[in-house]
Amino acid sequence: MAGIGLLWSRMPEHVHDEARYIISSLVPMAMSYFNPYEQITVSEYGEERFRRNKMFVAVSTYLSRVCAGGASKLKAELNIKDDPVVTLDENQEVVDTFGGARMWWRLCPKASKNKGAITVSYYPGEADEPRCFRLVFHKRHRHLVLNSYLPSVVRRWRELTAKDRQRLLFTNHSKQGESMWTSVPYNPPATFDMLAMDHAKKVDIMEDLTAFEKGKEYHSKVGKAWKRGYLLHGPPGTGKSTMIGAMANFLDYDVYDLDLTSVKNNSELRKLFLDTTNKSIIVIEDIDAIEVELTTKRKGSNKAANGDELRDRRMLIEFADKNDEKSRVTLSGLLSFVDGLWSACGSERIFMFTTNHLDRLDPALIRPGRMDKHIEMSYCRFEAFKVLAKSYLDITDHSLFAEIGRLLDDTDTTPADVADNLMLRSKRLDDIDGAPPADVANNLMLRCKRKRDADECLAGLVETLKKSKMESATPPMDSAEEAKEEQT
Ligand SMILES: Nc1ncnc2c1ncn2[C@@H]1O[C@H](COP(=O)(O)OP(=O)(O)OP(=O)(O)O)[C@@H](O)[C@H]1O
Ligand SMILES: [Mg+2]
């Protein structure tokens, strides 16, 4: 085999081109016939340079955690949680055994595509062959490797990473004209326990999420894509964003916060959706505000469109030149992922749209059956207040509760406003809690202080609520009266 190889490389220049072509295609065939080994390459990047090949990540984790015992060259880095992670270094070979077969793995370094030539590239690393893992195995194990070994590597990788998974918050941005996601670690503090809202509604949402999470078989039985759409609506400060965090915590899902203003057209939107992973919540916040902004841009006017205009409009989002069909994001483009053709791509995804103005949305978006669930986040009433009092002041009852309940019924106060009132005092509680509890007397004193602060805090809330009740009861001044007032 070596002899044939040598002959081939030394072939004289004068051999006819055609013969050379035939020989050059026969030699590798002959060599592979005699070579008892086969190889599979797992490149770090796929065809699209910016997307890391997930198989590469899976193999890297698998080898480092399962087969690195005999390796002498390792590399250490900090992971997203700032814990040290050790991986194989370049050119380190490790051996794995599976079903009695031996597998040789090696991490091959980046290699230049054209040795000696200078290549100009717009994208980092495009002139190089990316790093890759090379798996070598005996020919007779081909079936085993493809059908059992590689799937088992991926399965093991999933098990390994499930334990130390860090939840991520993704956001999209445009780089060199291409839309892509970037992520940061995401640990939202909110949970359903601390969400101030009607208890029955909260339980209903939690049950809905649990049913969705366990609904793989059900969805395939009824022939529906495994995904769910929620439309959260309500005034600002009623907990829509807090609810998204609570849902992410509840399901342990990643969150993709989609900024539609930086998406050029439907095909970019499609690419972004396809780049999302399973077990994720895709959020489009303040969808009504995006609509106003983009439409204003499209019209080239600084004047925001009025409510009637918005209601009449068929397109939800449309920007750039109206005549250029390729440069816009449309409602149908968006909805094709929510419940159209493309919704079947990917599973275990939750779509969340939030809005402060349900009445301003395009009817196509809110028609029955479009989103699976409409959730109204409303002003703070007594039941919701009790949740906030428990989380912020750690109390479940108080002499002022009855009065606060009545005042909340008479005013439209958001949970954010109530929380704000409770938090100012509770910050002072933190200061007190920070003091070293020297002895029992000191402890008792702190407890008295804590109670007094809760009293003060609720009294402050009563004052605020009374004030807003009075303000809402006072009829608005007409302009003549206003002018008179100003003169005096
Ligand atoms: N229902 C709620 N339960 C608990 N806390 C709440 C609730 N609503 C609001 N808050 C508190 O108020 C703050 C602001 O709420 P949040 O951002 O969730 O409101 P939003 O409805 O998303 O408002 P916007 O429409 O302006 O985006 C939160 O950080 C949270 O502390
Ligand atoms: Mg919000």
Descriptors:
488 residues; alpha/beta; Rossmann fold; seven-stranded mixed beta sheet; four-stranded antiparallel beta sheet; 17 helices; elongated; binds adenosine-5'-triphosphate; binds magnesium ion
Short synopsis of the structure:
By secondary structure, this protein is of the alpha/beta class. It has four domains: 1-35, no CATH class; 37-163, no CATH class; 169-376, P-loop containing nucleotide triphosphate hydrolases (Rossmann fold, 3-Layer(aba) Sandwich); 382-473, no CATH class. It contains 17 helices and 15 strands.
List the helices and strands and how they pair.
Elements: H1 2-9, H2 17-34, E1 37-43, H3 54-67, E2 74-78, E3 84-88, E4 93-98, E5 101-108, E6 111-112, E7 128-129, E8 132-138, H4 142-163, E9 168-175, E10 178-185, H5 199-213, H6 216-222, E11 227-233, H7 240-251, E12 254-257, H8 266-274, E13 280-284, H9 287-299, H10 307-312, H11 331-338, E14 349-355, H12 363-366, E15 373-376, H13 382-393, H14 401-410, H15 415-434, H16 440-473, H17 479-487
Parallel strand pairs: 9-12, 11-14, 11-15, 12-13, 13-14
Antiparallel strand pairs: 1-8, 2-3, 4-5, 5-8, 6-7, 9-10
The structure holds adenosine-5'-triphosphate and magnesium ion.
Residues 240-241, 285 line the site of magnesium ion.
Description:
With 488 residues, the chain is α/β, with parallel strands linked by helices. Helix content is 45%, strand content 17%. The chain is built from 17 helices and 15 strands. Strands 10-9-12-13-14-11-15 form a 7-stranded mixed sheet, sandwiched between helices. A 4-stranded antiparallel sheet has the order 1-8-5-4, covered by helices on one side. Strands 2-3 form a two-stranded antiparallel sheet. Strand 2 and strand 3 form a beta hairpin. The site of magnesium ion has 3 residues, from helix 7. InterPro entries: AAA+_ATPase, AAA_N_dom, At3g28540-like_C, ATPase_AAA_core, Mitochondrial_chaperone_BCS1, P-loop_NTPase. Its cofactor is Mg(2+).
